[in-house]
Amino acid sequence: ILPEIKIKFKKKRLYYTVIILFSSFCFFSISTVSLFAFLIEYFPSIEFIILLFILLCLISLILLILLKSIIKNEFAIILSNEGIFENTHFGSIGFINWDDIENVDYNYYINRSSIKIRINEDKYIDYIKNQKNTIKKFYLNMFIEEYSQQDIFIAEVYIDYDFDEFYELFCKYYLNSKE
């Protein structure tokens, strides 16, 4: 039995994501306020302005949900004897049982390393159906329809750990589950 290992996000990546989301929110808010000022002067229709306000609220809510999902998750990856909890990006499906993994490959592409995890197709669809977040579920369904694959990629840019060591550790847990 191997101990549970928790791997954190790269802080630099997390800071950039928060800055980009916050900047997008500020830019969108300023643009919308400017648009409201213009519309009030030239289009006094209150229904149109209310519709734009509702749109601003919805987009702001989506940005806040994305920001919350990034900040609340302290760990990018958790390795355990039961499986891997992969939460490196918005399209992550969460906990994956070792038995549901069909294949693991190490990829190197354009100066970046990643691990490609192939999941059993039926189980992958079950993981998507069990998502609580409707936006995430929609995103994952679009991805599987577009690419017709059930692969998950863990890129070195997301985790604060030496990637070659992480790959060896990942394989150790994966092979241990097959024994």
Structural summary, described in words:
This protein is of the alpha+beta class and about 180 residues long. The protein has five helices and seven strands. The protein has helices spanning about 10-40, 45-70, 120-130, 135-145, 165-179, and strands at about 5-10, 75-80, 85, 95, 100-110, 110-120, 150-155. A four-stranded antiparallel β-sheet has the order 1-2-3-4, with helices on one face. A three-stranded antiparallel β-sheet has the order 5-6-7. Strand 2 and strand 3 (about 85) form a beta hairpin. It is elongated, with a radius of gyration of 20 Å. It starts with a strand and ends with a helix. The model has no long low-confidence stretch (mean pLDDT about 80).
Q: In sequence order, what are the helices and strands, one letter per element?
A: EHHEEEEEHHEH
End-to-end separation: 11 Å
Radius of gyration over C-alpha positions, nearest whole angstrom:
20 Å
The SS-based structural class is alpha+beta
User: Strand-residue fraction?
Assistant: 15-25%
Helix content: 40-55%
In DSSP terms (H or I, runs of 4 or more residues), the helix count works out at 5
> What kind of sheet is the major sheet?
4 strands, antiparallel
